[in-house]
Structure formats: structure tokens, C-alpha cells
Design brief:
Low-confidence stretches of chain A: none
Distance between the termini of chain B: 18 Å
Number of strands of chain A: 5
Distance between the termini of chain A: 95 Å
Strand content of chain A: 25-35%
Structural class of chain A: alpha+beta
Largest sheet of chain B: 6 strands, mixed
Strand order of the largest sheet of chain B: 1-2-4-6-5-3
Number of helices of chain B: 1
Largest sheet of chain A: 5 strands, mixed
Oligomer: heterodimer
Strand order of the largest sheet of chain A: 1-3-5-4-2
Chain lengths: 134, 106
């Protein structure tokens, strides 16, 4: 009988566990791509109808995690990765779906165009905001 | 008017909401998912179900928009259904949106 060292069994088990998950992601460009950014510069906003003023859509991004990647953290990382590739700094209207052994997320990737953001309205009562005399 | 197709991994349907049908659009269809096009005329609704890639689902969505005579499609909602079939996990993407025509409607 062949004896396998216990440390080798442990190492194989760890490798097996580490390899039990996959993350797939894809994207479609629907606007004009921008220069690639770092995934860490991409902000992901969960499903919310409020889209920031001046938001310019670049594309749709999706990520699906299986096995030990079937979690929100991995899926959000996948969305960030895809958005960064097309120069998006924001992913909005994100939907997350959970099922047996998989989690899927999808959203709209884009960036805020500062030129398209209207100036903030003047704040009332600020004119001549000098320190009041005591 | 309504129609339904089911292909290999992707199925779709389109329903016109206009009083009179509009001739199919033969140019490139723009897709967006945030706002309806300014001044666009709504022509109908489109839905796509796909277990294939996002690009395949969006291509099907565009084809359905064009079939309704639209040159702009707006994806209003997207969601995934995740099911286990035997030892496989099947992830199905659902896209639902509207077809619009900007410019002169023939």
C-alpha cells in the first residue's frame, strides 16, 4: 500500500478548495470608451434609480461568481474590473442575483462628465456672511 | 404585433405598441440603459432571455429593436435567474426594454 504523507494530503486539499471557485465577467460597450483606469478607482453603486448628474454611459458590465467566488465581494470586484477596462469610474443601477452555488451582478458603467454637471444653486442667506456683531 | 424566437441559448420577443406598424430599421441600433432618447417615439417593448454572453444578448436586443423600426433601444431592467439542473448551474440573463425611433418616423 502506498503511504501518502499527511502534509501532502493537506496541501492537495488546500489547492482543491482554492480551485473550487471561478469568476467570469463580460461587458458590452454602448458609448464611447475612455482611457483605462485602475479597478480601485471604480465606485459601484447598488440598485438605485438615482444616477448622478452628468453621468455618461460607456457600457454594460456583468460578473458571475461560482463556488467559493459566489459572493458579493468577488462579483463587485468583477464589475470593477470590467468597468475599469473601458474607462468607467462608476457602475450604477447594479442588480445582484443569488442562486444555488452562484451569484451574478450586472450594472451600467460610465463616468461623470464635469462639463455636463449643472452648477449648484446659490445658497440663500450667504450673501455678506460676515461674522455677526455681538 | 408580437413575435417570439428561441434560438440556441437565447430567446426573445418584441411587441409593437404603435397604432400602425413601422417598417424595420436597417441601420445600426444604439443601445443605452439610462435614459430614453430625447424626442424619440416609442415603438414597442423588447425582452431577451439568454444563457450566452452579454454581447449575444445585447445583439439580440438590437435586432429586436430594429425589427420594430427603432434605431435606439433602452434596456430598462436586467436580472439573472440562477438554477441548478442536475449537476450544472444555469445562469440566465433577462433584458427588458423599449424600442425608440429618433428623427423622422417613416
Amino acid at each position: 500500500m502506498i503511504r501518502i504523507p499527511s502534509c501532502l494530503v493537506s496541501a492537495l486539499w488546500i489547492l482543491l478548495l482554492a480551485g473550487c471557485g471561478t469568476l467570469t465577467s463580460d461587458r458590452v460597450v454602448t458609448g464611447v470608451e475612455a482611457e483605462r483606469v485602475a479597478p480601485g478607482d471604480v465606485q459601484v453603486v447598488m440598485n438605485d434609480d438615482r444616477v448622478p448628474e452628468g453621468f455618461r454611459e460607456i457600457g454594460m458590465v456583468r460578473a458571475i461568481g461560482y463556488g467559493n467566488k459566489a459572493n458579493l465581494q468577488s462579483v463587485v470586484a468583477g464589475l470593477r474590473h470590467e468597468a475599469a477596462q473601458i474607462g468607467a469610474t462608476l457602475v450604477v443601477r447594479v442588480t445582484i442575483s443569488q442562486g444555488p452555488n452562484a451569484v451574478a451582478g450586472m450594472g451600467t458603467a460610465g463616468r461623470v462628465d464635469p462639463a455636463a454637471v449643472p452648477p449648484p444653486p446659490p445658497v440663500a442667506g450667504r450673501r455678506g456672511a460676515a461674522t455677526p456683531a455681538l | 404585433m408580437g413575435s417570439l424566437t428561441a434560438g440556441c441559448g437565447t430567446s426573445s420577443s418584441a411587441y409593437a405598441t404603435t397604432a400602425t406598424p413601422v417598417e424595420a430599421y436597417r441601420g445600426e441600433v444604439d443601445v443605452r440603459s439610462i435614459d430614453a432618447p430625447a424626442g424619440g417615439v416609442e415603438l414597442g417593448v423588447v425582452e431577451v432571455r439568454s444563457v450566452q454572453g452579454l454581447d449575444r444578448a445585447v445583439a439580440e436586443f438590437k435586432a429586436r429593436v430594429a425589427q420594430l423600426g427603432g434605431n435606439v433601444g433602452v434596456v430598462e431592467s436586467h436580472d439573472h435567474t440562477i438554477e441548478r439542473q442536475e449537476d450544472q448551474v444555469i445562469v440566465t440573463l433577462d433584458l427588458l426594454g423599449r424600442a425608440y425611433r429618433t428623427g423622422a418616423v417613416p
